[in-house]
Specification:
Its EC number is 3.4.19.12. One of its GO terms (molecular function) is cysteine-type deubiquitinase activity. This is ubiquitinyl hydrolase 1. By secondary structure, the chain is an alpha+beta fold. The chain has three domains: about 15-90, no CATH class; about 95-185, DUSP-like; about 200-300, DUSP-like (2-Layer Sandwich). Helices cover about 35% and strands about 25% of the residues. It is built from eight helices and 17 strands. The protein is flat and about 90 Å long. The chain starts with 16 loop residues before the first strand and ends with a helix.
Length: about 325
């Protein structure tokens, strides 16, 4: 096989790349102009070579060449004529710059306020870097009841930023969203739900272990039920706390096949487990689903074999005596 590198020069603008003609009709973005931020270049052949990058310092607008440990200031014409491999653009918005400057100005006023507000650190990072950060999304650290989920409370300082009232009101009036948060508390509803979930998991796994232990003790069960291992693994992940969501209804469709006379039996080579009738009833009562696949042994034949085995054992003991 042969491969080669295409060396055709691609022209690209440093500023003002307008993508409006290429936007989907349903796109709601108002800003469609982009400025170049960085360029990756490749020197060499398709089989080997060397990468360098050109990046702009957004503070002073100066371009720099990054070549391993060497960083060199370059003129923008060098970037313009570069043999570009990957181009990185970001939306250009003078309005976004003004918004950030306004927030900084309000924050430095140190205007006395009776309340302080908490805002999502994630959203604030979007505000500082995106041209269109969208509505404030404080639900990144809140639960559906408006409190802090118990599992997030111990690192809540990593998720929020405290804002003075005047800054919060400016951002809220400008971008909307929310909700407003001026008090952090652990959600008691979530705490109750967590405890109930832990209890449910404990009951289900303890019951299964008990039923399965009794099943393993049976020497000749008259009926054995089949269960999809794919579903069983999902259930196991839930009861062991590896997955927060319980599995759906039992789905034995992938391991079942229809036999003559409408009887359902397990497919040859199917990925399934064997459980007792009591275990099947327990799980199917909790989760529903199916279909039910039972392997039934002929009781008369089993009893006959057990009787024959007993007679042989007595005969052997008599001879030994």
């Amino acid at each position: 096989m042969y491969s080669f590198k295409i060396n055709s020069h691609v022209s690209f603008p440093l500023e003002g790349l307008d993508l409006r003609p290429f936007l989907a009709k349903e796109c709601v973005s108002k800003i469609t102009t982009y400025d170049l931020l960085s360029v990756i270049c490749h020197h060499g052949t398709a089989g080997s070579g060397h990468y360098i990058a050109y990046c702009q310092n957004v503070i002073n607008g100066q371009w720099y060449e990054f070549d391993d440990q060497y960083v060199t200031e370059v003129h923008e014409t060098v970037v313009q004529n570069a043999e570009a491999y990957v181009l990185f653009y970001r939306k250009s918005s003078e309005e976004a710059v003004r918004e950030r400057q306004k927030v900084v100005s309000l924050a430095t006023m140190k205007e006395p306020s009776l309340l302080q507000f908490y805002i999502s650190r994630e959203w604030l990072n979007k505000f500082n870097t995106f041209a269109e950060p969208g509505p404030i999304t404080n639900h990144t650290f809140l639960c559906s009841h408006g409190g802090i989920p118990p599992n997030k409370y111990h690192y809540i300082d990593d998720l929020v930023v405290i804002l003075p009232q005047n800054v919060w009101e400016y951002l809220y009036n400008r971008f909307g969203g929310g909700p407003a948060v001026n008090h952090l508390y652990v959600c008691s509803v979530c705490q109750v739900e967590i405890e109930a979930l832990a209890k449910r998991r404990r009951i289900e796994i303890d019951t299964f272990i008990k039923l399965n232990k009794a099943f393993q003790a049976e020497e000749s069960p008259s009926v054995i039920y089949c269960i999809s291992m794919q579903w069983f693994r999902e259930w196991e992940a839930f009861v062991k706390g590896k997955d927060n969501e319980p599995p759906g209804p039992i789905d034995n469709n992938k391991i079942a096949m229809m036999k003559g006379g409408g009887q359902i039996q397990v497919k040859k080579g199917a990925d399934y487990g064997q459980i007792s009738e009591e275990t099947w009833i327990y799980l199917s009562t909790l989760y529903g689903g199916g279909p039910e696949i039972a392997i039934r042994q002929n009781v008369a034949q089993v009893q006959e074999l057990e009787s024959l085995h007993g007679e042989q054992k007595i005969e052997a003991e008599t001879r030994a005596a």
